[in-house]
Design a protein that fits this description.
It contains three helices and eight strands, in the order βαββαββαβββ. By secondary structure, the chain is of the alpha/beta class. The mean pLDDT is 91.
Length: 146
């Protein structure tokens, strides 16, 4: 058995791709439009995995966009997805500059939480040792829930 992907339903594919790819940094590795089922699947991988074959990749995120509008609830009961990043401060700054709320700032130089446009909680962890505490993150309060 091998873990393949996590599926996340999204309501706005363009907004979701902006978050997941442009701001978070994942890369689209394949896409499937299903006209009969009226949905699009977009598979995303971390940059270190994107060039690898599907058999060699770490688990992917599958964005499922149903063409007929639906309202989704319960993003918090899903839990969260977690990614290691090379520089947690730079990742959080890129997200914040893109209009993403940093729900749990990386005060400790180690961990932060944000949410996707559809309320999916994303944990960011510093690769290797924690970075030294730095402003504005060290004194930034939590916002909302993660």
């Amino acid at each position: 058995m091998r873990y393949l992907h996590t599926m996340v339903r999204v309501t706005d594919l363009d907004a979701s791709l902006r978050f997941w790819c442009d701001l978070l940094g994942l890369q689209e590795v394949r896409r499937q439009d299903n006209e009969k089922g009226r949905f699009t699947l977009v598979f995303l991988a971390a940059p270190a995995d994107a060039a690898r074959s599907a058999a060699e990749r770490s688990p992917e995120v599958e964005l499922t966009w149903n063409w007929d509008p639906e309202v989704y609830t319960g993003g918090r009961n899903f839990g969260h997805l977690a990614y290691k990043v090379d520089d947690i401060y730079a990742a959080c700054q890129r997200l914040a500059d893109g209009g993403v709320v940093i729900n749990r700032p990386p005060r400790d130089g180690w961990m932060a939480f944000v949410r996707s446009p559809d309320g999916i909680s994303i944990e960011l962890l510093q690769e290797g040792e924690p970075l030294a505490p730095a402003e504005p993150w060290a004194s930034m309060p939590n916002t909302g829930v993660w």
